[in-house]
Fold:
Amino acid sequence: MKPDRNRTVFPGTPQKSIWHTLRFISLFREIIPHKAGKDESQKIAKGEKDFYDFMTGLFLDMYEHPGNYFIPLDEYDHYMKGRTKEELPHKNDSRECTLRNKFQKSIKFYQDFLYNIGKYGKIDCTSLVIPEMKYKEIIAGLKVTKKDDNSKRIDALKTMGMNYTQSHNTLILSNNKYPMMFTGLSLLSRSPNRVYGYMCFLLCDYRGIREDFKPGFTDTLFVLDEEHKKEASEMNDLMNHIGTKLKIKPFRNTQAGSFWKLQYYKNGKAVASFHIDINTVHYFINFNNVNNISRMGYLLKDRSVELYDWFFHHIKTMNCSCKNNRKVDIGGTKKRICGLMNRMELYDPNQSDMDKMKSIVTLFHCDGLYIERKLEIRT
Structure:
């Protein structure tokens, strides 16, 4: 059974978060370490596929039967009553945060449990052997709530073929459905890649076992439909054209609310950020200081009132009380913005928005309008 990549309706928010985790798992890629011999290579290949299949099977089963994995199902949606976070009376609603964290931690428990036993356990044929004291230490550090008993969560993995036996102060783990899975788990959990190793574990991406692996732009497109891939690729081409360098930030969570964060730099300054989630891309275009925003407003108004109005609308109003908040003259109309967030913000834009954004970026960077020197701020 494969996940429905185009699913948009969910039984509840916890199931949506499980589905999000499943959708972020990468395509299977077999990666054999260079020093592995023929026999070892065959074992590694089988181990990588077994662990990949175990993880996809785990989250598919969790989506279908969340109660079996002790995922809280009703509390969050009952409290939200169909509202979004933005529609709550208070911006930082502690109850919403508590309930969301509860089901998110319940899901992530299984990833962190597997990662830690893979990191500290040793392979013995097809089993994983870990000192009992270390195992107890791992379990103690993964409590979902203060009064939680994680043994019930671990026992839930028996559905996926997991077995546990004790012998001489050690715990021996095996799996009768995916017998070689601990080889794949160990490779990912013990990756020497300090930057992207844990992220690749979450994605079940075995390229992450290589110390020098870095994800590229095309890797981030995996969660997008064809239309969003095309739009993001066009913007990436524009970023390359204006001479930026791309940095992809590693993430430590694959549940709902997490995303790929692409940051583009030029001459040490942030030019743009793309936030790529499932079939969604948000764009943040930086102008680096309020002087540039003010100047761009006047330049755009001279060229196109329609483009100016669009630009003005997408400069976010900020009412924070910090010292950087100020009223800025943008093409003859003042707007209160934060001097630390001098940017346009576009949330999942349509094609018309994309065209306008590209026009403004091109005007700002390619037509010599990028301003490095200090200008007089119109206030």
